[in-house]
Amino acid sequence: MKAYISDPEDLKQDSTYQEIWDNMIINFLAESLDVVNDNVWVISLGDAFARQYDLYATSDGHSALLHRCLGMLLQKVDDRIYVREKIDLMCRHSSMSIPVNRLGLAQGIGLVAASHLDTVLEKLKNILENAGQSALQRFLSFFSFREKVEDVDDTYAALALMYGYAARYAPSTVIEARINALVGTDMLGRFLHVQHPTAKQAVITAIDLLGRAVISAAEIGISFPLQRRDQLLEYVLTLMGRDQSDDLVDFSIELLQTQTVALSACTTLVSIEPRLPMETRNRVMKATLGFFALPTEPSNIVESLITNLIILLGAILLTSGEDGRSRAEQLLHILRQLDPYVSASAEHQRRRGCVAVHEVLVKFRNLCSGGFGASGSYPTLSLKHIDQGGPRGSSSLPSAFVLPNRDSLSLGERIMAYLPRCADTDDEVRKVAIQIIALFFNISLSLPKQKTSANDIDLESSYGALSSLEDIVSIIRRASVDQIEVFHRVVSSVCILLSKDELVVLLHSCTLAACDKVKQSADGSIQAIIVFIIRRGKDLREADVLRTTQSLLSSAIALTDKHSRQEVLNAISCLAENTNHIVVFDEVLFVAGRDICTKDITRIRGGWAIQDVFYVFSQHKVLATLFLEYILSILHKEPVATNDSEKGEINSESSADDCILQATMFALNAFLRGGGKVGKQAVEQSYPSVLSALILKLGGLHGLAELGRNELLR
């Protein structure tokens, strides 16, 4: 203690020094009482402490330490009558309206409960009954004085804290029955109607303390599930929200503080048995994830709240699911819920989202390296609940059963979600995103692969690429480096590390990345897609090419920025050049036909994207000739929809063919008008074919003139 206070200037820098010093005094007192070990002396010291109360005004916050000192002393006394008298004295000399005094009293009563739990609970029950009689006063006070509302709030807040600390300090050997009785009688439900933020914080803290008491018992081998745990979580979420009727004062800062305390309590509650059901998990996440969108100020409170929220997400991951596969499902659920923040337009939201993803992934990696208990035992947090080698123990099970497999990580989808952030405008976001991608592949290479797809991963190349990624991570932590060069290296490594199936999924899910809210990120994503197609296009089957074309066309249609759209069009050209161009052309023409028959393409905002695709094909050195040949082949084979002489109808198949034919004519027009030098050269080389095809089609369409359908003829 002397060493701790030897440098007063240093202590001024530490905001928690008073709390640490008070704890030292209590520990010093506890050891002194043990050393003296004389009941008469302890009683006389207790009387001396009791006389000290007269030196304090009722409202003086410093009496909080006196409550704790007397509480520690009563813990050592066997005389129940003496203990009861002194508890009454403590309550009489406490101003419950002052939070620090209220907390000191609760901690003092809690210390007494370590040896006299039943005496304390009896006293608290009496106070609660008296407080209950004030319920009518609370109702009437809405029509008279607000002070009475606060009086009841203060009493309930103090009571809740006293119950909480009584549970926290009580012996773990008897705590289960007492906690079950407390929760079972729904005593805490009576405290839900408090209105003042500090009172809400006190009730939430009490619930948190109950959970911590369960964790402490589990740490010494006395494990039991907390009854009505989900109901307690519901209480915390209720107290965390803002009352619709709360128009007393604007409690914005106090509300944030309440929410910070509530997130800590949620973490405690989800960390204990019983296992968190999916509905409760979803309810907790729905109520809390919105905090990622909070403004940056007041920074100290908001940062603390966000930290608590990230810790909560880690706890949900660790204590949900029963084996590796179900934990991987939990991981993906959490990460997908974070996606809106990872890709938000606000920088601070993207930073928070990426940091949260990274922290949750670190937790998952630790689970993978530590192994998953097949019975769902909790491997980390402060819970040391371990399956004691029973028939469901995990030690005898093969690792493939306990660990998730690589495919359960949905790597392709996840990497595409974080790749845009590696090209972000914010330096911190870029660094964390690269770490996320490195972490994903680090985890994936340690997991078993399904036999059907294990052969398409070259382990030597993969470890080399992972090593390169981890080098990038260490470099960007130490020094500032060329952003473009770093991004290219990341893309090159990812290109090697993805399996065929993962690459396919990545390309299928590229639309959001290509349309990212940050233009620099969107452009970077498209460049990455082009690299993947050039280097790995040969791995794509026809169905994969089709779906990738659909995704890229969706991106082109969604983008109105000319430069970004042009980049996507280049990616479509690249796909046609490096894979099966017929599949790409077919899909482009199908979408063109659908648009022509269902939309007014002259009124589309930003222009019709498919027309731009036709222009790009006609100006491409390799694709121009191929696309022209393709158009001519369609002209030769497509029939024309005409009226059925008997029914007077056009069937749907003929109608679809008609749309394709209109699209083909539109494509040829675009080719002839917008192909530039490359397109002109392609037409000149195939001039007889183009002219004869048009003349033959014109002859084939003469029947439409009689029907008044002249658009195609024109």
UniProtKB/TrEMBL annotation:
Alphabetical list of SUPFAM superfamilies matching this protein: ARM repeat
Highest taxon in the source lineage: Eukaryota
Ranges for domain MROH2B-like HEAT-repeats: 10-295
Spans through the membrane: none
Domain Maestro-like HEAT-repeats, chain residue ranges per copy: 411-584
Cellular component GO terms, alphabetical: cytoplasm
PANTHER family: MAESTRO HEAT-LIKE REPEAT FAMILY MEMBER 1, MAESTRO-RELATED HEAT DOMAIN-CONTAINING
Protein name in UniProt: Protein SHOOT GRAVITROPISM 6
Organism: Aegilops tauschii subsp. strangulata (Goatgrass)
